[in-house]
């Protein structure tokens, strides 16, 4: 009987809900990285055609006559990495909640003050490294160039999303009457 209680206790250590969420968000994260890689692999003519098509669509909807796609390209860079940031944060957050025994809260070394800070910092590094890799990849695509400016534009989307996540997390905790668990 004692063995049954132990097995029952161990079965509840792993959260099926967070395991499924982590799997879904890691698939979305890796899938979105593949989409970004595919878009970066387009040569300059294909990339320009896509931008011009989107610009024409925007002109039709807004009844405008935009001819320069610079702002559109900047918005696309920021947006694609903003979405990657959301997927990555959710994947890391879900992964951290799969088991209390393997979560950051149980780690003997606390480099960050909380689980949320850990998720934000790891998301920041992961997405910035992907932005750098994206621009490096473009160095090998015909007619494309890698640009540190594009990495900085990508970082705008990344940082804005992480600030929103941090604010939303704080508001959520306050609405529940809780405070963030801080490790000291």
If you had to describe this structure to a student in words, what would you say it looks like?
With about 180 residues, this protein is mainly alpha-helical. It has one domain. Helix content is about 75%, strand content about 0%. It has six helices and no strands. The protein is elongated and about 55 Å long. Residues about 1-10 have low confidence and may be disordered.
Low-confidence stretches: 1-11
Please count the helical segments: 6
Shape: elongated
Between the first and last Cα atoms, what is the distance in angstroms? 39 Å
Mean pLDDT: 85
Radius of gyration: 21 Å
Oligomer: single chain
Strand element count:
0
Sketch the major β-sheet: none
Strand portion: under 5%
Topology:
Elements: H1 2-11, H2 16-41, H3 44-62, H4 70-96, H5 115-138, H6 148-175
Helix pairs in contact: 2-4, 2-5, 4-5, 4-6, 5-6
Could you provide a short overview of the structure?
It contains six helices and no strands. By secondary structure, the protein is an all-alpha fold. The chain starts with a helix and ends in a 9-residue tail after the last helix.
């Amino acid at each position: 009987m004692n063995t049954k209680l132990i097995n029952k206790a161990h079965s509840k250590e792993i959260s099926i809900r967070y395991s499924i969420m982590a799997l879904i968000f890691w698939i979305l994260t890796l899938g979105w990285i593949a989409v970004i890689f595919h878009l970066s692999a387009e040569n300059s003519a294909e990339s320009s055609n896509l931008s011009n098509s989107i610009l024409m669509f925007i002109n039709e909807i807004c009844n405008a006559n935009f001819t320069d796609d610079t702002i559109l390209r900047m918005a696309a860079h920021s947006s694609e990495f903003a979405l990657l940031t959301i997927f990555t944060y959710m994947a890391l957050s879900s992964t951290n909640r799969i088991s209390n025994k393997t979560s950051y809260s149980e780690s003997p070394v606390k480099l960050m003050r909380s689980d949320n800070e850990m998720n934000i910092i790891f998301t920041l590094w992961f997405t910035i490294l992907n932005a750098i890799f994206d621009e490096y990849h473009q160095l090998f695509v015909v007619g494309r160039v890698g640009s540190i400016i594009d990495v900085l534009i990508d970082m705008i989307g990344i940082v804005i999303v992480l600030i929103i996540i941090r604010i939303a997390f704080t508001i959520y905790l306050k609405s529940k009457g809780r405070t963030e668990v801080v490790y000291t």
